[in-house]
Design goal:
By secondary structure, the chain is mostly helical. It is built from ten helices and two strands; from the N terminus they run αααββααααααα. The chain starts with a helix and ends with a helix.
Amino acid sequence: MSTKVLSRVHSWIAASDLTEGARLPAERDLSATLGVSRGELRKALLVLEANGVLTRQVGRGTFISKLPKQRKSDGTKSVVSDLAERTGPHEAMMARLALEPELARMAALHSSPRQLRELRKLANSMRNASSWLAYEELDSRFHDILAEASGNSLLHELHKILNGVRYVVVWRRLNTPVAGPDADYHSFDEHDVIVSALEQRDGAQAYKAMKKHLQSTMSTMAEVD
């Protein structure tokens, strides 16, 4: 995803007549209005969600949670887009390794039954993703809910920034086909193990499972070099 697309979406929201709490137009209509592909639009929406500008509700749509300020022609980039320009894929993954296993350990103690049900549902849905883009969105949501389930709002906000950056620099780097992941894709079973550890309230196992998952992802990235 280019920063130009992100800036275009950001500027359109800032200049629109929409108010906080309003729902964005359908992706098909918005992508046509902005002259960008739906895939690029979805990635920009994910970054804006990580920045707290948008909130996406499954089955309902995408809503404005905080109106962005109108930018000057040479305005300041968002935190995520700025960091994404200065961060490499390996650096992003190392940051995830430093934070997400501990979030998983905390989530084993603090996650609610509703959060556990949603994580299990997302893990199952990823197996049936019809495209890589659909998988990426489900995966991003999975990790965000897990971070929220840690019970630490500050770490959750830090993870939103990290998640937005890694989405741009990691997924942008991978040359994935249009079709979804193969049935034996490593992340499927790894997500299941993470959720099982959370359901069992086993913090040590949740930490270990998340660390193994991230290391597998790093190994996959190395294979495409």
